[in-house]
Amino acid sequence: MSSRKRREFLKKVFKGGAGVIFSGFAFPSSTAPIAGFLFSSAAPAVSPTGITSSSAATSSAGTSSAATSSGHPSSGHPSSGHHCSETFRESDKSVIFSGREAMFYRKTGNNEVQCQLCPQGCHIFDGNSGFCRVRKNIGGALYSMVYGRPCTFDVGPIEKAPLYHFIPGHKRLCVATVGCNLRCKYCHNWHISQRGPGEVREFSMSPEQIVQESLQQGVTSVSFTYNEPTVFYEYMYDISRLASSKGLKVHIVSNGYINPEPLRKLLTWLDAVKIDLKAFSEDFYSEISAARLKPVMKTLKVLKEERMFFEIVNLVVPTLNDNPYDIRRMCEWISDNLGDEVPLHFSRFSPTYRLTNLPSTPVRTLEEAVRIAHGSGLKYVYIGNMPGHRHNSTWCPGCGERLIHRTHISVIEISMKNGSCMKCGYRIEGIWD
Ligand code: SF4
Prior knowledge:
It is a single chain. This protein is an alpha/beta fold. Helices cover about 25% and strands about 20% of the residues. A hairpin with a 7-residue loop joins strand 5 (about 110-115) and strand 6 (about 125). Residues about 15-55, about 60-80 and about 85-95 have low confidence and may be disordered. The structure holds iron/sulfur cluster (SF4).
């Protein structure tokens, strides 16, 4: 059964909501008051960390949710199954108070565990945390240290994901914690992605509270974004189930570095996925992100198999992944393996974090990438982080009419009816209501 069919079936089964879903987890009674750190789109996008969301948690609309080499004992080598020796700053007492036993791990003896959530495959000794900093071995069991502990959330447009073929013009509630399973040197959200629990201000919010606030804010979806949501899998999973049962759509903004089994399980509750395909080169993944390309390609194939709606973003970094040959190989692989209707965004890089020595991506480089993608047969190709460019908008592959007029992440006008071009009737791939 595909995840789409499974989702429809399970939605009916779990219509009862939280009482069914959250058995076995008691949320701390001393949770921080939630009023005062949720923000409407009209308000300044300030995060609970006390800094604006544009600096604390930048959208991956052209940036990345992963981060850089940071002196982590395990950083710099993406090999699967390495041992993690990073110790945790927080006391074990508070960990047990707010932590939750992790899904997807195995005990390997002598109180050691192996996390099986992502391709990093960390072997973790008792008392240590994994590569992502947020999953800790406590007494021979693996715990998520960020369950119910978001550090950032706000309300904003879907287009900021970026998702351009998914209920355009709607608002989403974004949720992030600390931690990441990559080390991208150009991460715009390194303030949270390269931090562990307790290193930035965090809040206590149960899945029920997140969903309740989403409904009160009048958003149509919940989005897991800013840091890599895989690392807070259990929290994301529980919110997704509950949100879905309450009629909210759910989507993730991810680097795609997750193992197939947890991915398939999660997809049951998702409506859309945005994947950062950072480059089409193992060298880039290894040197810039401390990861591997192949598992991300596998994730994209699983999304296709499961008939999940997804879009792809490629941040074009001068001198590192802007080689036209690699861009062509990537576009042809997408077209051949995922189909020509997958939306592809080429986003402009701007100097940040460990890559302040590089210039912003020239517009001609992005336009050349679009030409290559169109030449490979891809129908929906966008340029991001370049407000006002004609490739911010959606154009009909049938007649060339402009279907969705955008400037950056703002929708100006939609000229479609029931997901089709009003002029020629061409059906546009996406989720439109
Ligand atoms: S999710 Fe974290 S602990 Fe688990 S394998 Fe990945 S990096 Fe390691």
